[in-house]
Predict the 3D structure of the following.
Amino acid sequence: MNISRRFFIGSAASFGAFGGSRCFAAPVGVVSAGNPNLKFGVVSDIHITKIGEKEKMEGWGNNLTFRHTLEWFREQGVDAVMVAGDMADLGMVEELEAVADAWYKVFPDDKAPDGRKVEKLFVTGNHDFHGYLYGGHAAKVYPDMAERKKHVLRNDMGGWWRKIFHEDYSRFYRKDIKGYTFLGAHWDDGTGMDANYGRSTFGVELSAFLSERGKSLNPARPFFYFQHPHPKDTCYGSWAWGRDDGKVTKALSEYPNAVAFSGHSHYSLTDERSLWQGAFTSVGTSSLRYTGLPHNARLPAGYENSGTDGRDAWKHNGVKMTPAFSNAGDCRQGMLWSVYDDRIVIQRREFLSNMVVGDDWVMPTGEAKPFAFAEHAKKLDAPEFPAGAKLKLTRIKRKNRGGKSRDGKESIPSVEKDAIRILIPAAIPVKNARVWDYKVVAETAGAEKKTRFILANGFNHGAAHKRATADSECVFALEDFPAGATVKFTVTPLNCFEKPGEPLVAEWNGPAPV
């Protein structure tokens, strides 16, 4: 379909109307005056296991964060709420009932307090469809197959969906809200429990729909498509964990007014690569349960404070002495989308701290695509350390992680060693700069440089959050360097597009820091 490549409506002239290069991002409220045509909330990967009335919101698996998020969306006057998959953590009926419990407490009969209907834009993910198989969960809880089938969603997904959410279920569906079209695709390969795992193919129904009805969609307005996995080669670049096989990307590439939403990876909304513009627009929706670490980043060793994958991952991870990143569950993210005639304003928010996690994204109309990665990267400043900041070097005792090969024939013991700990002060955001990670280079005279990458503490939180303003840590074993050698450490802050700020430098000479 060759619909005009004018993005939504308007022209490139509209781009300048929002302040030139600043139109790609703006503080909350700067350009969002007036009433939008449409408002909707967006979350994904809520992974609910139970109703949590008597628990704390930050507890694991309960539906309280979802309920709190829905309450905030209600206060913003949303017309709909999207959940881009993985609603139930382990694919059980009682988990989806807990999702509905939160929804109907906030939107009884699918209505806001003023009587307006608030639409559910829900699709299933892999956890909803075959999560019951993970760790043999359903078989352990319900050993009897007849009883098990009464509790597994996949055994009768359509029937349970109608009973729990009071609406029909189909693998691919359309809803029209205030003149805007939404297309949803469930993670569902059409098989039942007897098929065990199966591959859910995305893009087949979408392609058929667009072939038949694409010309009827108003090219002067965006339409919204949502599924669980990321469309291939869109948000997060040429490789993203859990991406689909490319059929969706091919289908939507004929529609510059298409906006695709996807979750699955749990990647943080503080990563500006969550919003991609190419032939269409693609958005990563993060997670309302926990934010995931960048997957397969900084290969082959990965981040020093996380891990890596592959056949030799155990070797790379086993020698690491920097503690692995933890507490991803304290960061639960979502978005508010406000759609106007001439722009879309997107607020990114974290729902435990109730902080915004970055400047609003503002997508103008016209052919300008400020969120194409190359254009976006140009406009983001480099993160910088605060004036007077210094690295702090100390000698410590620390064990490496250790590990063994999958076949158990090789291993790396976990042994306490003398080590150098580097505490890195937080690089402070200036304007539209945000630190994503730190490049740490250690060099000694006549020896090869050793390079490590550290994911910044609080990379997934709002810039003012206590974790985002705390030090990050990197640890080297003393045995990595010649005895008695002077070691120069250079630490450079990088944004998510790897634009570097000014580094900090410190030297270590023997047993004490210099």
